[in-house]
Structure formats: C-alpha cells, structure tokens
Amino acid sequence: MGLLSGRGMIDPRYFRHMTPVIEGAMTGLIEVIRPSPEDAQPEWIDGEWVYPSPTAIWRGMASVTPNKDWRARNREWAMEQTAEHAVRVQMNLAKNMLVPKSEWPAPLVDIRHGDVVKVVDNPNDPILERYNLTVRNPIGATDNWHRTLLCDANLGSRYDIEE
C-alpha cells in the first residue's frame, strides 16, 4: 500500500525548522574528549613510560540534564561506596567549534563508549564544570540533526576548581 501524499511522514523541511528549537536549550559549552587514540600504546622515553594524551574531538554548545527516569545508584567499587547518575547531553554534531565555521556543517564525529564529556563553561550552573561525564550510550538516530548522549556522572568524582 503506497503513501497517500507520495512522500515520507517527515516533511523535508522538518530538520531545518526544528534545529533552532532544541538549540535554544544548548547553553553550556562542552568538549568531548577521547581518552587516548584507538590502539595507542605508551612509549618508553628517557627512562619512563609516556602515555598518549587525551584529544578533544568535538567542542560546542550543548544541553546537559540529569536523566529523570534513572535515579542515582549507589555502588561499591574497590571497597569504596560510590554513586552514579545518568546524564543526557544533547548537541548538534554539525556545529563542531574545532572545525572552522566556514566548513559547517562539520563532518560527523564518531563519539564512542568511554569518551569523556567535560562541561567547559556553564553560566547557569557552574557546578557542572566540576564533573567528568563518561559516555555510556552514543548511539544516534536516523534524524541526525542533533545527538543525545547518555553519560554516567560519578557523583564522588567532583574536583575543586583552583582558586
């Protein structure tokens, strides 16, 4: 049975028109950091092991919110009590500030499980800048006009901002 209108259920203008709506909530500057390049090995330099440096693979505006349907969970790890909470990070992958604006839409970045999201600047709640969020689920959707990452925040891993 064919479509009555002759086109798909999503109007072709949908992505262009909806992008500014969700971007209105993207008020925090974040970086997605790859802890080390794939298959990277430490090198023996001047009598010590030198490990590869973490690399920023995406930088831009995002919305960072606690996942309301997932409560903080207490866990015991290495005989220490820890707590983790899921956090959703929404971003427009095409607006990668590591790529010159003249080249936007930027090529899509392959964000992976284990990458780290760092809130660089969040004027509405600077406390978020003290957490490192670990990507648990980076899977996108067929309508890739924005990406939602599900991350874990270790609630005991806050570090103090240097005065």
Characterize the structure shown.
This protein is mainly β and 163 residues long. The chain has a single domain (29-154), classed as Thrombin, subunit H. The chain has one helix and nine strands. The strands form two sheets. The chain has a six-stranded antiparallel barrel. A two-stranded antiparallel sheet has the order 2-3. The N and C termini lie far apart (66 Å).
What's a concise summary of this model?
This protein is mostly beta strands and about 160 residues long.
CATH architecture classification name: Beta Barrel
Sketch the topology as an H/E string, one letter per element. HEEEEEEEEE
Structural class: mainly beta
- Label the overall shape: globular
Strand neighbour order, sheet with most strands = 1-4-6-9-8-7
Largest sheet: 6 strands, antiparallel, barrel
Rg, nearest Å = 19 Å
Distance separating the two termini: 66 Å
Oligomer: single chain
The total tally of domains equals 1
Helicity level: under 10%
Beta strand % = 35-45%
CATH class type: Mainly Beta
- Low-pLDDT parts are none
Please supply descriptive tags for the structure shown above.
mainly beta; globular; 1 helix; Thrombin, subunit H; 6% helix; 9 strands; two-stranded antiparallel sheet; 163 residues
